[in-house]
Amino acid sequence: MSADREKNFISAVVYVHNNEKEIEYFLKYLNKTLMSTFENYEIICVDDESKDDSVKIIKNTAKEFENTTVNIIQMSYEQGLEKSMLAGVDFAIGDFVYEFDSCIIDYELSLIIDIYNKSIQGYDIVAASPEKNNNILSSFFYYVLNKFGKGNNKLKSERFRILSRRGINRIHQGTANIVYRKIVYYSCGLKHEHITYKPLIKTNINKNFLYNQNIAIDSIIAFTSIGYKISMAATLIMMCLMIITVIYSLFVKILQLDVSGGWMTLIWIISLSFFVLFGLASIIIRYLSMILRLLNNRNTYLYDSIDKINKN
What EC number(s) is this enzyme filed under (predicted)? Predict the structure, then answer.
């Protein structure tokens, strides 16, 4: 049986945060799926400071696995999905690395193997995406990123993905800190693909609205030009309003209409002030975007410990 299994070493990185209800089922079926296809693999659970019994359940479940090592990275404090997964991928040693952003399974387990088979056809990044994104805010977020981001991106909602070692090395060469991994993955120049599937159940994968909102805002500012374009559009509008106001004030003066004293001077000052204000805002936003991109090369993550569980 061993001779029939894939020889590539596989790492599976799993994000865990208060998942005591799902983690045992997920790990057992993930291990069963990987064991049936790969000769050598590891499972890395990144615990983002869970407050429940997630870690205890992981340790008890991992003791039942005979053919692999389960590693538990415990973050020093809650740092969110992006930094936690970056820690897990950095620790992974596989030729190919799975990223599971959630322990909730709404897909056929065979899909895990399908995206691997697609990857070995020459794709460095392959993701599993549901057919339809029912979250309106999420759909709008991806629309903005695809519309105003650099490159020909086709970002969409994803459940999990696989990265080749070449893809991981390329990403690490570009940045040490990632605001939003998917943008970096699909803008690194490597070949990528999506496999769509019909969800088996209706789930709420992204529960932390505030964290997702912050990630969305940071990503739009850092990776798109929409802020600069909005500011420039506002500047042009104010410039047009200023021109109209100046023409109107000249019209009033020529016809010597009865207006309050100082009105024309005040209008001139207000119009000019708004014009300068929006002009400066455009420049500031442009520079802030550049600074944010540079800051992506600084700071990473903090973890408290790494535990290895292996029955052997």
Answer: 2.4.-.-
Tokens of 31: 């291990």
Tens of pLDDT, residues 22-45:
999 999 999 999 999 999 999 999
Q: Which residues contact 170 (CB under 8 A, 6 or more apart)?
A: 124, 188, 189, 190
**CA distance linking residue 74 with residue 50, whole number of Å:** 9
> What band does 62 get if pLDDT is binned at 50, 70 and 90?
very high
- 160 and 126 Cβ atoms separated by less than 8 Å: no
Assess contact for 306 and 71: CB atoms under 8 A: yes
CA–CA gap between residue 5 and residue 34 (Å, rounded): 10
Of 168, 194, 193, 191, nearest to 181 by C-alpha is 168
**What pTM does this model have?**
0.76
Measured at the CA of 193, the angle between CA 107 and CA 298, to 5 degrees, comes to 100
What pLDDT is stored for residue 309 in this prediction?
84
- Please write down the HEC assignment for all residues of 248-281: HHHHHHHHCCCCCCCHHHHHHHHHHHHHHHHHHH
Handedness of CA 309, 17, 174, 300 (dihedral sign): negative
Q: Are 226 and 215 in contact (CB under 8 A)?
A: no
